[in-house]
């Protein structure tokens, strides 16, 4: 794929499980790969063979049987900066194949409440090491809300290591009401592994985490009532990387993600479930905002993409909503708000006498009406589009009372 024009922002979203890379203005990411690093398990003894010392992304998945696999990011924190640096090199020079990063700005999707020192180090890494043109960092819950055309809502974002419940009003995060739960896809993997062991299945491999994650992403789902599960004794066949197949009880596939609604399955006694975190978040927000937040719920993150999660979440949340007490009435709907026509008035803007060319940096005299830079030929004045919009407000004429022609009285 060809590169877009210079100046197009590069969107970088590196999570605990997957990294998503693309360019601004495109409908989706160009590359999605697992955020893992692989190093050779055994020293190569073959003559005249040059082996790579580090593998990144999909290359690790293809050779996971002979590699030691590491995760640079765990629970939303960068644990190994050297591995993280290798991931960035893989993005810019192996996938995107950008020769000169000074021509492309970077839009970095950051986690909420990232440490200030970590943010400064990331900025140095992009601007000083990779020489990016510019850098902008924005929390992912805001981007999730903006992507659906909203500025006010309640974002539930669950990834591989953490789950966030973030209330946003008019584009601003209410930081005092944000809920952080140490519950994510990693815990679903652990629960699935425990269920496999109860069924007598023990996967022995150096890439057991990746194998279980692949089974989870393809087959797990939610049911509406875990106390009344469907009565089926069907066995589900799963193909293993070595070509063999194992038979799994169908009940294992819907019991594994139940940890998101019942963290006590893994012994987490002090961790709230996702519906409980939503209730705790609403308690920290003004009551008058509850209706608007609950009517604009945004679910994001790969850990919430299981089939049946939305229906199950509604049932669990409706059962906990009475804890908030009486719900205040919603505000006046927009249809009842009287809108007034505003007359647009033209505003004359003062013209600059001199300006600096943004292309070459030369100081240009604009008193004679120059539009192009005499040094490099770049455009100095952007073309203006004049909108001649005038909206007349019709005033109601008062009816004059007629006078009596005999006595001249009204």
Written account of the structure:
- By secondary structure, the chain is an alpha+beta fold.
- Among the domains are: 10-139, ATPase, nucleotide binding domain (Nucleotidyltransferase, domain 5), CATH 3.30.420.40; 180-324, Actin, Chain A, domain 4 (Alpha-Beta Complex), CATH 3.90.640.
- Helices cover 25% and strands 19% of the residues.
- It is built from ten helices and 19 strands.
- The strands form six sheets. The protein has a five-stranded mixed beta sheet with strand order 3-2-1-9-10.
- The N and C termini lie far apart (84 Å).
Question: In short, what is this structure?
Answer:
With 410 residues, the protein is α+β, with helices and mostly antiparallel strands. Helix 5 (185-198) packs across helix 6 and helix 8 packs across helix 10. It contains 10 helices and 19 strands.
Outline the fold blueprint.
Blueprint: E1 10-14, E2 18-23, E3 31-34, E4 37-40, E5 54-56, H1 58-62, E6 67-70, E7 73-74, E8 77-78, H2 81-95, E9 106-110, H3 116-129, E10 135-139, H4 140-147, E11 153-158, E12 163-169, E13 172-173, E14 179-181, H5 185-198, H6 208-219, E15 235-239, E16 245-249, H7 250-255, H8 274-283, H9 290-294, E17 297-300, H10 309-320, E18 354-356, E19 363-365
Parallel strand pairs: 1-9, 9-10, 11-17
Antiparallel strand pairs: 1-2, 2-3, 4-5, 4-6, 7-8, 11-12, 12-13, 12-14, 15-16, 18-19
CATH class of the domain at 180-324: Alpha Beta
Q: State the helix count.
A: 10
CATH fold descriptor of the domain at 180-324: Actin, Chain A, domain 4
Quote the average pLDDT: 81
| Helix share bin | 10-25%
- Measure the end-to-end span: 84 Å
Gyration radius over CA: 30 Å
